[in-house]
Design brief:
alpha/beta, two-stranded parallel sheet, 4 strands
Length: 104
């Protein structure tokens, strides 16, 4: 029975896994005034956000604080050794190795 407002950068390819939700499509950066208006318009009572580690979430966190809203931060999964590459060639080798491993 929980309703979600989901903000995405682009329209999703697949339906969202929520029975009750609305989507807002938009690309930041967003100002605190943008975030306050969005939260007030939709009656947001809890903010759930991923911990992205940059300044992109500052405005929505400040808006939530200004509205005295609780905030739930989702931590990124830990990096697995070998899951990060630094060049296109490394990426191509990684993809090829994983595709071959799936065929075995």
């Amino acid at each position: 029975d929980t309703w979600f407002l989901v903000r995405l950068v682009e329209e999703p390819r697949d339906p969202l896994p929520f029975e009750y939700c609305d989507m807002v499509i938009g690309r930041g950066p967003f100002t605190i005034d943008d975030e306050l208006a969005l939260m007030r318009k939709h009656g947001i009572d809890v903010l759930v956000s991923k911990l992205s580690g940059g300044t992109a979430t500052v405005a929505k966190l400040d808006a939530a604080r200004a509205l005295s809203l609780p905030v739930v931060m989702l931590k990124r999964p830990e990096m697995v050794a070998g899951s990060c590459v630094t060049s296109v060639d490394e990426a191509m080798h990684w993809i090829a190795a994983h595709l071959l491993a799936r065929q075995d």
